[in-house]
Amino acid sequence: MLNAGLTVLGLSRFQFAMTTVFHFFFVPFSIGLAVIVAVMETMYVIKKEATYKKMAQFWGKIFLYSFAVGVVTGIIQEFQFGMNWSEYSRFMGDIFGAPLAIEALAAFFLESTFIGLWMFTWERFKPWLHALFIWLVAIGSSLSAVWILAANSFMQNPVGFAINKTTGRVVMTSFSAVVKNPQLWLELPHVLMGAGITASFVIAGCCAWRLLKKDHVSFYRKSLNVALVIGLIASIGSVAAGDFQTRYLINQQPMKFAAMEGLYKDSTNKGDWAVYSSFNTKQHKTTASLDVPYVLNILSYHRLSGTVKGQNTINQEMHATYDKKFGKDMNYYVPTKTLFWSFRLMAVSGGLFALMAIVGLFFNRRKSQLIMRQRWFLYIMGLMLWLPFLVNTAGWFITELGRYPWVVYGLLTIADAVSPTSTVGSLLFTNIVYFLLFAGLGLVMIVLSHRTLTAGPDGVEMNGYSSEDTSGKVEDPYGTEAFNHD
Amino acid sequence: MTSAQFLWFLLIGVLFSGFFFLEGFDFGIGMAIKLFGRNTAERDTIIQTIGPHWDGNEVWLITAGGAMFASFPMWYASLFSGYYLVLFLILVALIFRGVSFEFRANMKTETWRNFWEWAATIGSFCAAFLFGMLFTSMIEGVPMDAKGNIFGSFTTYVNWFSLVGGVAVTLMCLIHGLNFLQLKTLGTLRDRAQAWNKVLYPVLIVGEVLFVILLFISTDFFDKKPISTWSILIVLVLLTLIAWWGVLKAHNWTAFIASGLSLISIVVLIFNGLFPRVMIATNSAHSILIKDASSSPYTLHIMTIVAFSVLPIVLIYFIWSYWVFYKRLKSPKAA
Lengths: 486, 335
Fold this sequence. Notes:
The complex is a heterodimer. Chain A is mainly α. Helix content of chain A is 68%, strand content 6%. Chain A has helices spanning 8-47, 50-84, 86-120, 127-156, 175-179, 182-212, 217-252, 254-260, 295-301, 311-326, 336-363, 370-373, 375-383, 387-401, 424-455, and strands at residues 161-163, 170-172, 273-280, 285-292, 406-408, 412-413. In chain A, the strands form three sheets. Chain A has a two-stranded antiparallel ribbon with strand order 1-2. A two-stranded antiparallel ribbon of chain A has the order 3-4. In chain A, a hairpin with a 4-residue loop joins β3 (273-280) and β4. Chain A starts with 7 loop residues before the first helix and ends in a 31-residue tail after the last helix. Chain B is an all-alpha fold. Chain B has 14 helices and four strands. Chain B has helices at residues 3-35, 40-50, 54-71, 73-82, 84-105, 110-140, 154-157, 160-184, 188-218, 221-224, 226-248, 252-274, 290-293, 297-324, and strands spanning 185-186, 277-279, 288-289, 329-330. In chain B, β2 and β3 form a beta hairpin. The longest helix of chain B has 33 residues, at 3-35. Chain B: The chain crosses the membrane at residues 6-25, 83-103, 115-137, 157-178, 199-217, 229-248, 255-280, 300-325. Chain B: It is a multi-pass membrane protein.
C-alpha cells in the first residue's frame, strides 16, 4: 500500500498518512459538532427550555476537547509541506500557498476568536448573541474546509495554471478557476456531510450507551433526536454527493474509479458489480468475485447499459500519454485492494447511517417508550459511534492513494516531491514520536469524553477551570462580580 | 524586486511581529504557570488571563506560515525543510502546550493536573527558546546549495549565538508574560509579577548586550546596514528601559506595550538585516533573494487583495475579543 521499507520517500509518505488520518479524526467531528451545538443553542434561544442550554454546554464540552486536539495536529499539517515535501512546495507554491494562507486568515481567526468568546461569556451576553458566537465558529470551521479542499482539489485536478518554462514549476493563471474547480465543489459537500455524520453518530452512540444505563433518559433522548435528524440529512446528503463524485471520477480519474470497482479488465455491457472480489495485484488480475449484474452501470451512468474501462487499459493509455515526460518505468496501477474495500465500506456505511437514523427517529418518537425497550438497537447505535472515523479514513484513502503515482495529477510524482534534505534517521525519529504522541492524545481524548459522559449533564460548567470557592460554587472568572475596578 | 514582493516581505514581517507580540506573552504566561504560580488557585487565575485568547494568538503563527508559503514558496521550502528537527521540536512543544489548558482543567487527580501544568510550562519554554534559536541561527547564514537545500550540521543550529538568542527570546517572552499578568490581575499575583520583573529586567539588559556582541561577530548586519541595525538596537534598548521604568512605577500598560514592542523590534532587526535576502547562505552566492523567492506577480496580486480585504475585519473582531475580557482578575485569597 504505502511504499514499505525505510526510505525517505516511504517514511515521508507514512508520516503524511499518519498525521493526516489522525488530524482528520478530529476535523470532521469538530465541524459537525460545532453545527450541532449551534443548533442546540439556537433551540434554547427559540424555545427558552433550559434543557437545550444544558445540551449545548454538555456536547460543547466534548467539542472543546476535539477542537483542541484538532488545532494542535493541524499545525503539523501546515508545516509538513515545507518540512518533508520541500520540492512539492517549490513546485506548487504559486498555487497551493494561497488557499492555505486564506484558510488561516478567513477561517482560523474566526474560529479561534469566537470559540474563546463562546467559552467564557455564557452569562455575559444575550442568549441570541452568544448563540451567534458558536455559529461563527461553525462557519469558520466549515470555511476552513472550503480552502483546504480547494488546495487538495488542485492536486486531484489541476486547473487555472501554466507551467513556467524556465523553472518547470506551476504558475497560477486564474484564481477563479482554482476556486471554481469542479473537483472542489463535488468534494466539499461530501466532506461536510461526512462531518455531519461523524458528529451526529458519535453523539447518537454516546446517547445510546447512556440510555442503556437508563441515565438522564429525557436529556439523552432529546439529544438523540437532534443528532439523528442531522444524521439523517447528512447521510442522505453524503450518499448523494458521493454519487456525483463517483460519476465525475469515471472521466477525470479513471484509474481511481477502476480500482474502487476492482476492475482490471474493461467491464462488459452487462455491468457486473462485485460485492466481493479477491485480487492478484502482482499479475493485475481479479481471481474471484461475486457479481451482481447492472449495478455497475447504475452506479456509473444511472442506466443499465455501458462499459467501464479497467486498470489494464487505463495503464496503457497513461503510458501513451506520459511516457515522453516521465519515462517508461512508471507504475500507474493504484492500490486496488485498499480502494476496492474502502469504497465498499463507505457505500455500505452510508446506507447504514441513513437506515439507523430513520429507525432511531421512529423508536424515539416523543410519546413512545419504544427506544428504551429496543436494547439491541441501542447496542448497535452505541457500537456505531466508531464507524464514522473508519469511513472518513476510507474516503481519504481512496482520494489520496487513488492519485498514485502523482502528488499533483499528471504534473508531479510523489517521488519527485520529497525534501532532498530529509534523512531516514530523522524521519524515523519523528514518526515514532508522532505515533506515541497521537496514541497519548487519542487516549486522553477518549478518557475525557467518557468521563464527561459518565459525569452526566448536571456537572457541566463551561468556564472550565477549577476555580471553585469554598462553598463549591463556581465563579465565572469573567463575570462582573469577579472584578474589582481600580 | 517589485513593489508587491517588497510589500509581502513586509507583511510576513508584520505577521511574525503580531505572533511574537501576542504569543510572546502567551508563552510567558505558560512559563509562569509552574514557575510563578504557587498553588492550584493561582495557576487557575494565571491560565484564565489567556484562556480566551491563546488559540487566536497562535493563529498568527499559522497565518505567517501560510502567507510565507503563498508569497515566498522558495523561502518557505528552504527554511522549513532546512530546520526540520528544530521545527519538529517546536511542533511537539506547541502540541503539549496547546492541549494542556483544556486537558488540565478536566483532570481529576493532583498528579495529572500537575502533569499538564508541566506540559504547559515546559512546552512554552521550549517553543520560545526554539523560535529564538531558529531565527538567530538563520541570520548567521546556513550551509545551502544552489537550489536552496540546507545541509546543516549540529552547530549550524546550536552555537553560542543561537543559544544566547534562544535564551534572550525566552527571557523576553517571560517578562512580557509577567507584564501581561500585571495588567490582567489584581492583588498578590500582580505584586509578585512586578517584583519578579524588577529583578528580571537587569538580567535581560545583560542578555541584550551579549546578544549585540554576538550579533556583531556572527552576522553581516553591521557591515551591510550599520545605520539601520544600530538604530533598531538603540530602539530595542530604549524600549527595554521604558518597560523597566514601567515596571518600577507600576505603569502596567507602559510596561506591557514596551515589552511587546521590544519583541517586535527583534523581528524588525531580523527582517532589516535579511533584506534584500530571505535566506542567508554561508556561500553568499547561494543566498535566496526576495526577487527570486516569491510567487508570480499574479498570485501576489490576488493575495494582496485578499489580505487587505480580510485582515481589517479580522483585526476588528480580534481586538474586540480582547476588549470583552479587558477587566482584571482577582488574585485568589491566600489559603
